[in-house]
Amino acid sequence: AQSVTQPDIHITVSEGASLELRCNYSYGATPYLFWYVQSPGQGLQLLLKYFSGDTLVQGIKGFEAEFKRSQSSFNLRKPSVHWSDAAEYFCAVALKTSYDKVIFGPGTSLSVIP
Amino acid sequence: DGGITQSPKYLFRKEGQNVTLSCEQNLNHDAMYWYRQDPGQGLRLIYYSQIVNDFQKGDIAEGYSVSREKKESFPLTVTSAQKNPTAFYLCASSIGGAGGRPQETQYFGPGTRLLVL
């Protein structure tokens, strides 16, 4: 079945440590890929997106993500986490054949220890 | 400032009551969306509209209704038929239409939390 998975429901890291959030998708063709962040009680903000080209994508707030076709993955990374990065992170996909809809993963909650 | 506004921030619904959530955008976007967010389930699409006077059901449209009479506005009504309405509701918009490309960035409002009395 077609799906977007984020294997980690919750992650805790220390401030200054590196971060990697995982995202895998299961679709016949490579979809468009997104990462969004949501602060508590707020809407979502786009961090970065991948449509084509360079598989390493730079986003806002020091985040980057790497698309790996062979692994159907689009993992989000940050070299040094700040306390303000504590939030919910959503991976999302949009199919090239059905651009009306964006499909969101279940989210990963990030806690940061000072 | 351009953006999306949702009101109210919190909404209480009594048994058997219909309630309407407001979503307004001044980004001149053609496309608008409504999502429902429950803990641990991410976002699920309720309805979306690519152009004025037209809208389509998403994955969980039962118990909800929408209208798109104006480009700027896309209100969502939670009807009495929706038996489990307690959730966080998010509205979003994107360029869409003839001027947009597929997979344009969606911009989100701050959300409305609906609670049942």
Summarize the structure in short:
The complex is a heterodimer of chains A (114) and B (117). Chain A has 114 residues and is an all-beta fold.
Which helices and strands appear, and what pairs or packs with what?
The complex is a heterodimer of chains A (114) and B (117).
Chain A: E1 3-5, E2 10-14, E3 19-21, E4 24-26, E5 32-38, E6 44-50, E7 56-58, E8 64-68, E9 73-78, E10 87-95, E11 98-104, E12 108-113
Parallel strand pairs in A: 2-12
Antiparallel strand pairs in A: 1-4, 3-9, 5-6, 5-10, 7-8, 8-9, 10-11, 10-12
Chain B: E1 4-7, E2 10-13, E3 19-25, E4 31-37, E5 43-51, E6 54-57, E7 64-66, E8 76-78, E9 87-94, E10 107-108, E11 112-116
Parallel strand pairs in B: 2-11
Antiparallel strand pairs in B: 1-3, 3-8, 4-5, 4-9, 5-6, 7-8, 9-10, 9-11
How many helices of chain A in DSSP terms? 0
Oligomer: heterodimer
- Spatial shape of chain A: globular
- First CA to last CA of chain B: what distance? 35 Å
CATH architecture of chain A: Sandwich
Largest sheet of chain B: 7 strands, mixed
Proportion of β residues of chain A? over 45%
What's the gyration radius of chain B in Å? 14 Å
Q: Would you give the CATH topology of chain A? A: Immunoglobulin-like
Range of helix content of chain B: under 10%
- One letter per element, helices H and strands E, the order of chain A comes to EEEEEEEEEEEE
What pattern of helices and strands is seen along the backbone of chain B?
EEEEEEEEEEE
